[in-house]
Amino acid sequence: MINRRSALAGVAAMFGTSLFAPIARAAGLATNAMPPVIGEGPPSVAVFSPGQRALMAALSDRVIPTTDTPGAIAAGVPAYIEKLLADWSLPAERAPVLAGIDMMEARSMKDYRVPGAQATPAQLDALLTLAMNDQLPGGAEFFDTFRQLVITGYYTSEIGMTQEREYLPVPGEYNGAFPYSQVNKVYSA
After folding, report:
1. C-alpha count within 13 angstroms, C-beta hemisphere, residue 64
2. pLDDT by residue for the chain (189 residues), tens digit each?
3. d(Cα 34, Cα 97) in Å, to the nearest integer?
4. Is 180 within 8 Å of 112 (Cβ atoms)?
């Protein structure tokens, strides 16, 4: 089966030059491969407070919700994000993500009078839309980085590779006249 690092390199290509530096490091694409290679397991340090972690998980679930396939929560995206930020990022690279989570929390309290983790899906969507459209201070930077983290975490997870997409370790025979209408899923290799 494909490993997460190989999958990271493939997913990273879709973001181009605006790739978040810790993702590039984890994929082995950065020239300054600092910090050193980190193994499996929990993050070396806690990046998020319990409230930030809950909001980050709720926002992740809005970026890739559960549909006919499992969403970001089932794929372990929140744990992936914390691991990446703890073990593959520098403190200055974590700052915009933490500031963005705090900004979303403050805006949720201001607009809806509830903590962000308790906001409804529609309220979370509205907050993400404000950030995406840069209608919050630093919103666009946070949204772009956060979206990269969620998408990368999801599509390099086992769920993303095997349930959302189909994994073919050895593709079948080449058929140049295969009818496009019979293609069911995009394959990752």
Report:
1. 24
2. 455 555 555 555 555 556 666 666 666 655 554 444 556 677 778 889 999 999 999 999 999 999 888 999 999 999 999 998 888 888 888 899 999 999 999 999 999 999 999 999 999 999 999 999 999 998 998 999 999 999 888 888 888 877 777 666 666 666 677 777 777 766 565
3. 19
4. no
C-alpha 46: how far from its chain's center? 18
pTM: 0.71
**60's tokens:** 């992740």
Question: How crowded is residue 166: how many other Cβ atoms within 10 Å of its Cβ?
Answer: 13
Measured CA to CA in angstroms, residue 97 lies from 77, 93, 173, 183, 187 at distances of 15, 8, 45, 38, 31
Distance CA(157)–CA(108), nearest Å, equals 30
CA angle 6, 12, 18 (to 5 degrees): 155
